[in-house]
User: Fold this.
Amino acid sequence: MKSYLSLIPLSAKVRKRQNRMTLLCIIFAVFLVTSIFSMADIGVQIERTRLLEKHENLTYQDMLSSTMAQTLFLTAMVLFILVLIAGVLMISSTINTNVVQRTKFFGMMRCIGMSKEQIIRFVRLEALNWCKTAIPLGVILGIVFTWGLCAALRFLVGEEFSGIPLFGISIIGIISGVVVGITTVLLAASSPAKRAAKVSPVTAVTGNLENPQKPHHTINTHIFKIETALGIHHAISAKKNLMLMTGSFALSIILFLSFLVLIDFVNYLMPQSSSTADISISSSDNSNSIDNELLDTINSMPGIKRIFGRRSILDVPATMDKNKGTSCMIDMISYDEFELKCLSKDEILKKGSDISKVSGNSSYIIATWDKDSTLKIGDRIWIKNEELEIAGLLKYDPFSNDGLTNGKITLITSGETFIRLTGITDYSLLMAQTADDITDEEITAISSILDKNCIFQDKRDERTTGTYTAFVLCVYGFLAVVTLVAALNIINNISMSVYARIKQYGAMRAVGMDGHQITKMIVAEAFTYAATGCTVGCTIGLLISKWLYHILIASHFSYAVWNVPAVPLLGILLFVLATIIVAVYAPSKRMRSMEITEIINEL
Assistant:
């Protein structure tokens, strides 16, 4: 053997099974970053192509000023940092346990003359040795995943993604993946390497690197039984391990909550409405001058899937409080039955709204709302001595540029109610949704039957369904990978923690503790990690979620209000609970099935 460093590849072969999860953690970290930056790079290329169609002389400054490019790379950088931190915590935990399990090995190395600096160098180079396999695999997986997303966008979504390259290679994505892989491993190996170097040869040879201190007080068994109390004590006694395990759980939750904000961002950036029109026909003077019979005429023409109309009247005198005589001016707009149902389907109604009351010829209405509005469901408004009750509120004002009411009251009624209140039967706006295979000739035929008082607009090119689907597909794809990584990390950490205490469990079995009690001890330790991790993760995750929401959404959409994502949060907590149950099953079963002497002699 020429050098002690020659032991690194030999150790990797001997401990191939134990190193498997560490390799997976590195692979997933590299894969995530490679995929994220590759998709961001492709998105910028698409944006560049779009800008080139509008500007012949496109400069680098033009690209930097593009909102899409800034958003893509800002998002990628935030995710890069979160993935880096998560990777460091996950890999640190596995390396730390790996070092604990090889106490005797490092003890022998110290006894034959290896210095502390050499121990540190050995652990770091051993960690870097994993990168030779993990980083190329992570990069390849990231590239293949990116190709799969590009194929899905091109063949399933189409539209503006019909020209997206299928087998493009992003240099930015590859470099980012390699950098995060090496950086993560070096940062993760730093603390375990120093920990191994601090142990004296005598202590290391005994095989007890942790060298736990005797508790200053007796373990409390008044609340929990002895096996549960011991499990909790095992979790909280090793402070550094508790911190790493807590960080691993917490980062998984933080990543999950951060990705949820991206989904909200996409919904605000490209809101998808069930009533989005492909064709609009409006009155040139914004009056109700479009003949109501035109709706039926167009509806019977080929290529039309659905047509609906609106009537409107502005600055109508109304009374808010009949007893006090509080008067105001309101705007009133009619919605057809289809558009009323879309309000509920698109989830833009506030909680407690009942759209069914508004349908038909009724005395119920919907009102626009924002955070400064004083209107409430159940309030009454009098128009021409007719009492109308607010049956629902919109989450924002869709008729203003910024989504705010700015103190203006706008009421939405059914078509029948509007006609009863105003006597107006003609429309101010007609909107049609067309069939996917409608031809330009059929569009021309529709426009040709309109008179000069009508303004015809073909909005088919303004569809954002494809882009929206693409963003959601990417976000949910990464969210699925993050969830998988979190599950594997939890299972690995629990398994490694149990394996590191195998001699202690053997001693407890020797003094009479049965398999059921061992299982309860492992469960108690795992749930302690989960409880601290979920507490920290939810606290920090919600703060980061609110911060990201403000940066990405609230600063651009003034009507947006951050709310605690209660249902997704409950879902991730249940997922952690289920993963913990799966994680403790295999090691507890192994402990129950092993003979006492086998456990004691395992190491």
User: Anything to note?
Assistant: The CA atoms of residues 319 and 325 lie 6 Å apart. The first helix runs from residue 7 to 14. The first strand starts at residue 279 and ends at 283.
